[in-house]
Design brief:
This protein has 127 residues and is mainly alpha-helical. It contains five helices and no strands. The protein has helices spanning 23-37, 41-54, 62-65, 74-86, 89-109.
Length: 127
């Protein structure tokens, strides 16, 4: 398995652009990045999740199974979940409007694995 292609990088204090989000939402994301996930992490996660859900079905979940932290596409969804849980009101809805269609693609291309622990997030219980 190859490594993920490089994601957009942010420098200290920067947020990677996410199309469709208001300036107020970007400000809220920057605050979450500073305190929880690191500069640019949410924008990189959106780009990574978008790449992951559109890759060939045969490779869709193999990176997660490899136990390689640099290659686990599901880590991007973990970051998005952290942001969605911390954002408020309109900002959460705006980011969800970007993430939800990607989740739908992932759901349509995978199925539930009943053998996975129920406490895992839904995207980690798919095969």
């Amino acid at each position: 398995m190859g490594r993920k292609p490089p994601a957009p990088r942010a420098h200290r204090g920067e947020t990677v652009a996410i199309d469709g989000l208001s300036a107020a939402t970007i400000r809220e994301i920057r605050a979450i990045e500073r305190s929880h996930v690191g500069a640019g992490a949410v924008g990189r996660a959106v780009a990574g999740w978008r790449r992951a859900v559109h890759q060939p079905r045969a490779r869709l979940l193999t990176s997660a199974a490899a136990d390689c932290p640099c290659c686990d596409d599901l880590d991007d969804r973990d970051v998005l979940d952290q942001a969605l849980l911390r954002l408020t009101g309109r900002a959460r809805r705006e980011l969800a409007a970007v993430v939800d269609p990607l989740d739908e693609i992932f759901l349509s291309r995978t199925h539930h694995d009943p053998a996975t622990p129920p406490e895992w997030p839904w995207w980690r219980r798919r095969t």
